[in-house]
């Protein structure tokens, strides 16, 4: 939500936001179809985007749906387990670092959706 709030408040220059550490968050919002870019200016495709709408969008992604089912089956999955499961599900060949990164990110998203006060460090 931090990046979304920055864009809403007029901090829309992609290069500046990347320099502030939002590269992955920008990529994520692009992949969800939530932002667009004209030259280097980012805009929200839905200016009314808030926590509830973002959570709904995240919950409806296939990867989150899949991992929520897997976590119900085994709530003790680690970030490596999650990364390996999703990589296998998507037929991806990732390095161990990417497995940990993707697994950690998915666990954070799921925890954030289930507990809105959780501090999500991705967006």
Polypeptide structure, described:
This protein folds into two domains: 2-44, no CATH class; 51-114. It is built from seven helices and two strands, in the order H-H-H-E-E-H-H-H-H. The chain has helices at residues 2-8, 14-19, 23-31, 51-59, 62-73, 79-89, 96-114, and strands at 35-38, 41-44. Strands 1-2 form a two-stranded antiparallel ribbon. Strand 1 (35-38) and strand 2 (41-44) form a beta hairpin. The longest helix has 19 residues, at 96-114. The model has no long low-confidence stretch (mean pLDDT 89).
Counting DSSP H or I runs of 4 or more residues, the number of helices is: 7
Q: Describe the main β-sheet briefly.
A: 2 strands, antiparallel
Q: Spell out the helices and strands N to C.
A: HHHEEHHHH
**Helical proportion?**
55-70%
Amino- and carboxy-terminal Cα gap: 6 Å
Sheet with most strands: strand arrangement? 1-2
Can you tell me the residue ranges where pLDDT is under 50 for at least 5 consecutive residues?
none
Overall shape: globular
Total number of distinct structural domains: 2
What is the arithmetic mean of pLDDT?
89
Q: How many beta-strand runs? A: 2
> Taking Cα atoms only, what radius of gyration do you get, to the nearest Å?
15 Å
**Classification by helices and strands:** mainly alpha
Strand fraction band? 5-15%
């Amino acid at each position: 939500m931090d990046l979304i709030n920055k864009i809403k408040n007029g901090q829309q220059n992609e290069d500046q936001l990347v320099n502030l550490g939002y590269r992955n968050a920008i990529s994520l919002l692009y992949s969800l179809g939530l932002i667009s870019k004209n030259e280097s200016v980012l805009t929200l495709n839905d200016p009314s985007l808030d926590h509830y709408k973002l959570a709904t969008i995240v919950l409806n992604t296939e990867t989150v749906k899949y991992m929520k089912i897997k976590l119900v089956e085994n709530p003790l999955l680690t970030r490596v387990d999650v990364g390996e499961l999703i990589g296998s599900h998507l037929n991806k060949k990732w390095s161990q670092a990417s497995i940990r990164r993707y697994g950690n990110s998915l666990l954070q998203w799921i925890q954030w959706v289930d507990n809105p006060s959780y501090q999500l460090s991705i967006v």
